[in-house]
Amino acid sequence: MKILVTGAAGFIGSHTCERLKRLGHDVVGLDNFNDYYSLELKHLNEKALNAIGVTIIKHDLRAEDLTDALPKDINYIFHFAAQPGISASSTFEDYFTNNILGTKNLIDYASTLPNLNLLVNIGTSSIYGLEATFPESVAPKPASHYGVTKLAAEQLVLQKSREKLFQSCSLRLYSVIGPRERPEKMYTKLIACAYNNTEFPLYDGSATHLRSFTYVGDIVDGIVSVVGNEAKVNGEIINLGTEVEHTTQDGIEAVEAVIGKSIKINHVSARAGDQLRTKANIDKAKELLDYNPQTTLLEGVKAQVEWYKANFL
Questions:
Q1: Fewer CB within 10 Å, N- or C-terminus of the chain?
Q2: Is 77 within 8 Å of 160 (Cβ atoms)?
Q3: In the chain, pLDDT over 70 holds for what percent of residues?
Q4: pTM of the predicted model as reported, rounded to 2 decimal places
């Protein structure tokens, strides 16, 4: 199968490209290589993909010539590209244009493909709101511009299933960790602080926040399992993550245990829209995709520390 992965130079997108390629698929990446975070990291991911025969097209989903820039013989699309997370440096326009307009342009492109089996939207637990412990049937209550615009993107994609224009689904991911995690995310930042002897900024109250910290390999297991199962997943929203909860403090202590060093903490003001609790309800993923994440928090942190040491020390 020929598969297009948007956001291919990013954290989870690059891992998904690798897995799909190793499963024998012809994989094409798309990324706009913006400077939201380290271009060095994105090019490092690109280099790893190029080494196994995955080429990344440098293009922006918001561009008017998107359809002309992309292949016409695509069978599956995995849509990771987005303005990610909750950041004071991101404007509402950033979230709106990347997450909604970019997705709409991708849908328009997908509508021209004669042999498209499935468009897979990559969603987020942030769609649920401040508490994300629910089955997919619960009405979402997003509490950030990120969550609101990702919900809109999800519905734009699923609309095409309802219209019977093409098959689609949306996978809501929970607190993914592991090698290649973005530099502003918790574990990469914790590891960097430990090795650089700098302070980790801990948002007030967040030490007790609960998360389904899920290893990227387990997430990718669920993502790629939709290939060949489009009849099961068409029109569906599916949670992917671990059912095991850990606090932020547990995460800090896991990094300290792996590295063998205490991390300095700088307490900073709470962040608006930050989730208080996420626990993935994966009953649907188990039923439809036989999904079964197994990697422990400590195993995931060890893998991420080794990646960091190999590339940044």
A1: C
A2: no
A3: 100
A4: 0.96
Separation CA 94–CA 145 (nearest Å): 10
Is the CATH number 3.40.50.720 carried by domain 2-174+215-242+284-289?
yes
**Domain boundaries defined on the chain:** 2-174+215-242+284-289, 186-210+244-280+294-312
Picking from 21, 134, 127, the residue whose alpha carbon sits closest to that of residue 76 is 21
**What is the CATH code of the structural domain delimited by 186-210+244-280+294-312?**
3.90.25.10
Q: Which of 146, 174, 291, 308 is catalytic?
A: 146
Beta strands in the chain (DSSP E): 2-6, 26-31, 55-58, 76-79, 118-124, 131-132, 168-173, 176-177, 200-203, 210-211, 214-215, 237-240, 246-247, 265-268, 277-278
As a whole number, mean pLDDT of residues 80-86 equals: 90
Is 38's pLDDT higher than 90?
no
| Predicted pLDDT at 311 | 96
DSSP 9-36: TSHHHHHHHHHHHHTT-EEEEEE---SS
The question of whether 146 is a catalytic residue gets the answer: yes
Q: What's the confidence (pLDDT) of residue 37? A: 87
